[in-house]
Amino acid sequence: MSSRPAHRHTPAALRFVLEGSGVWTLVNGDAVHMAPGDLILTPSWSWHEHHNPGTEPMIWFDGLDLPLVRNLDAIFFEPGGEELSSYQPALASRSEDCYGTAGLLPAADEPVIVEDPATGRSSRLLAYRWAAVDAALSRLTDSTGQRAAVIRYADPATGRDVMPTMRAELHRVLAGHRTQTTRTTGSGIWVVYHGSGATVIDGRRFHWSAGDMFVTPSWAAVDHEAADDADLFLLSDWPALAALGLARTRQAGQRQDVVAEEEGRGSACG
Amino acid sequence: MSSRPAHRHTPAALRFVLEGSGVWTLVNGDAVHMAPGDLILTPSWSWHEHHNPGTEPMIWFDGLDLPLVRNLDAIFFEPGGEELSSYQPALASRSEDCYGTAGLLPAADEPVIVEDPATGRSSRLLAYRWAAVDAALSRLTDSTGQRAAVIRYADPATGRDVMPTMRAELHRVLAGHRTQTTRTTGSGIWVVYHGSGATVIDGRRFHWSAGDMFVTPSWAAVDHEAADDADLFLLSDWPALAALGLARTRQAGQRQDVVAEEEGRGSACG
Amino acid sequence: MSSRPAHRHTPAALRFVLEGSGVWTLVNGDAVHMAPGDLILTPSWSWHEHHNPGTEPMIWFDGLDLPLVRNLDAIFFEPGGEELSSYQPALASRSEDCYGTAGLLPAADEPVIVEDPATGRSSRLLAYRWAAVDAALSRLTDSTGQRAAVIRYADPATGRDVMPTMRAELHRVLAGHRTQTTRTTGSGIWVVYHGSGATVIDGRRFHWSAGDMFVTPSWAAVDHEAADDADLFLLSDWPALAALGLARTRQAGQRQDVVAEEEGRGSACG
Amino acid sequence: MSSRPAHRHTPAALRFVLEGSGVWTLVNGDAVHMAPGDLILTPSWSWHEHHNPGTEPMIWFDGLDLPLVRNLDAIFFEPGGEELSSYQPALASRSEDCYGTAGLLPAADEPVIVEDPATGRSSRLLAYRWAAVDAALSRLTDSTGQRAAVIRYADPATGRDVMPTMRAELHRVLAGHRTQTTRTTGSGIWVVYHGSGATVIDGRRFHWSAGDMFVTPSWAAVDHEAADDADLFLLSDWPALAALGLARTRQAGQRQDVVAEEEGRGSACG
């Protein structure tokens, strides 16, 4: 059994769980259990701590906006006490009890956008469960008849991104499909959750399979091709660029040429 | 079998289904089946038509913002052709496929609030199913330990009310509980969906049971008491008052006195 | 000397001064002097009283949103005491001291749009002086080389309309010019402040000169033709329609035909 | 005579003029003359070029958001042709003709906040003249009776900061007054335009006079004391911090102690 004691800081974190079970995190007193495929938030300046009551490790992808917050000289940190760690985790967090159904909000939540500059603007929902994501993507591909679909994780009470600094998306590409070639400002970190395939980045093709990660630089031409049905988790800094008037995107009329085949670094070292 | 041909108009409508089955409505080409307890929207200026392929009637509560739109001299009406009526309804509408999961939005939906004055601002989700409402209310009462809970129906992509002119809520009051006495500007129309109890309006107590309707005038003191577990659907014009700077609310420190017991008009006429 | 004692009410008023001098109004303790051509606001629920220390009358056009507020059952009224009437009016009100220069705001005013549903959203600037309006219109016609210009009175801190329920505009049409034919939802009340000319409303031409007033119904085809350089003050309910998703406008490709010449009712009764 | 040819880039610039005359800049085809004390904007991705038809230099403080845009990997640059440089500058730019009067907007400008992530959100007004700033500050100190006043440069059509990445303010401190001690996140660059005095930064006092510049780090305790009436121009990155949920401010209950007297680096090198 291991745990990390409560603390809070202005850099925000999100975690996409890859392996393990039984772990839970406590966010401002709300116990959130974690399972593979779930996206779990610890918003800026929220008290949080992690608990693994078992003996097996859990592995997650941990995304923070630390470089941006550091560049802006806005890092604050506060250690907490020990008194919060005795919670018993339930299967659903309070945030899921309150915000877990589409279009049904606790009545006290007014649809007024108040952008309090001092308190941040993170999602009220702290956990996005894989089963719901999987079903939503299946409905989208079934409904549209298309071979690819993208969902954006959002605050159910405002539709805004999960954090003011970070966007999270899940890209599903069905076997044999290649997506449109697109450029966007801002960089992306991709986690392959299911399947295998390749991504072409500025003409260079990188092959991947489940468990791999790769990054796409700002304004690179990017498209994906799935060998098997693939699920790619994406973390980007798009909300920061949008808020600052720097967001741009361009879709190429046709898919880019592949001019180089790359071996991933993992393979190269193997 | 009966149907209403396609048409559209600027007054918006919402329908809370009370009895029947097999009926569906077509909203801008999206087939939406209807069942008891569901809330179904036909937003301002959307093409719509209703179909009952069976032989039994369906009964719903039909709420429109017609008086307000007429007062503002803004009624437009356009009849449509017959070509839309051949759709086969699926169990879930396209709007539910796209917006039916809390916090998971199609990626094209940017979290930007654009208040286009010409096109209205209604919810992207057209159907709110009773099973989801029922479960959300149960989670709220379980999670808070309180004997009453209220959910507001909202656009899952913005959190705003279902219509710019109308708010819809579901109030659950558990057996034996009496709610706080509250005043709000704007009028309310209440539909008793489950249970029985009474509502005190400016000191006068009105008893109700499933299938009854009653209204509460602007700024009246209002509270509810449930004899059995009760579900009350509320339609109000709060969003219009809020948009115009006229929304006010006040919660009394204690529950109002009951100075008169009223028989409902339905009973009096019986 | 005459005065009206302090009171406040939820219906909002705006006043476009036509004749007289020396009168001032007190709005939430801010003394605002009044002169011909000025637009003066008394926002919803603001304390106000009017003072005429002289012996000559002042004449103004008084625009209220009373019908809309009454239709929404949201009228509140509160009488005040006598203690506010001893103020000495300065040439510029506090609101002009703080918000009277374009693009220069008191630093405490954050550019955050908080739509508090309970307190209204009226302009921080209470007086718009004729000399400034006149100069702004001259700069617009000089800058664009066009024979007509329209300015909208706005909150200098947000750009929004002066009231959530009412829009005010000043339309200048130079001698000999006829404006485009336009339809909008919502009704308009027009006050001729300078010049003479005619307005065509759904094919009927009405002649006017300084001091006349006329109205244009919702969705009527409207254009103006100036015989002399003309200034027309317009009060409309556009913000209410826009907030409720009912605002529409259409500009005709060419000017409408005139099918009838109308004598004004005043002339007809003379 | 010298000039810089037209070009555009995503980093935005603002210029606070210190000395010189006769110079003008062309921003998207709008000729803007420059004089001491004026703040002149060249928003992100606007075509611009500078012209000095005379023989004397002009000196200005040039503020750019280049470090932030570079950190976000969002720099774009496009060189332009030569054809724009034949404009004759008028005393007032088109932007001043259209947006130069408080609360009076061209009627086409709707008060709708559309945050287009692709096009930026800079002020419609490109020039803020010193005479107007000086008069606005005098009215504020006269109206409030206080010995210090701050105005924020804003978009007259929305009230938002001049750039999504940068805030500009003018701080006036009258002789003998010391301001409250305040901490804010984000860094500040200060330009002393008039007067002399000192600024205490985390307990160290720095003396300054007209023409000096100094910087204040994020979260430093800062207050100013004027020996003569002083005008301090401030450029900060507050809007970026606010948009990202990182803006914080704290006002100390009393003024900080001075623990060290510093000689400015300029003096030390003299």
Short description:
The structure is a homotetramer of 270-residue chains. Chain A is 14% helix and 38% strand.
By CATH, the architecture of the largest domain in chain A is named: Sandwich
User: Number of DSSP strands of chain A?
Assistant: 21
Question: Helix segment count of chain A?
Answer: 5
Percentage of residues in DSSP E strands of chain A = 35-45%
Largest interface: A-B, 42 and 42 residues
Characterize the quaternary organization of these chains: homotetramer
Which structural class best describes the helix and strand composition of chain A? mainly beta
Question: What would you say this structure looks like, in words?
Answer:
- 4 copies of one chain form a homotetramer.
- The first copy, chain A, is globular and about 55 Å long.
- In chain A, the strands form 5 sheets. Chain A has a 5-stranded antiparallel sheet, with no helix packed on it. Chain A has a 5-stranded antiparallel sheet with strand order 11-12-19-14-17, with helices on one face. A 4-stranded antiparallel sheet of chain A has the order 7-2-5-10.
- The first copy, chain A, folds into 2 domains: 2-99, Jelly Rolls (Sandwich), CATH 2.60.120; 166-269, Jelly Rolls (Sandwich), CATH 2.60.120.
- In chain A, a hairpin with a 2-residue loop joins strand 3 and strand 4.
- The longest helix of chain A has 15 residues, at 130-144.
- Chain A is 14% helix and 38% strand.
- Chain A is built from 5 helices and 21 strands.
- By secondary structure, chain A is mainly beta.
- The first copy, chain A, has helices spanning 66-71, 94-99, 130-144, 238-243, 265-269, and strands at 2-9, 13-19, 24-27, 30-33, 39-42, 48-52, 59-64, 77-79, 104-106, 127-128, 148-153, 167-173, 182-184, 188-194, 196-201, 204-209, 213-216, 222-226, 230-236, 249-251, 260-262.
- Chains in contact: A-B, A-C, A-D, B-C, B-D, C-D.
- The A-B interface holds A 92, 94, 96-107, 109, 111, 113, 123, 125, 128, 132-133, 135-136, 139-140, 142-143, 149-161, 169 and B 92, 94, 96-107, 109, 111, 113, 123, 125, 128, 132-133, 135-136, 139-140, 142-143, 149-161, 169.
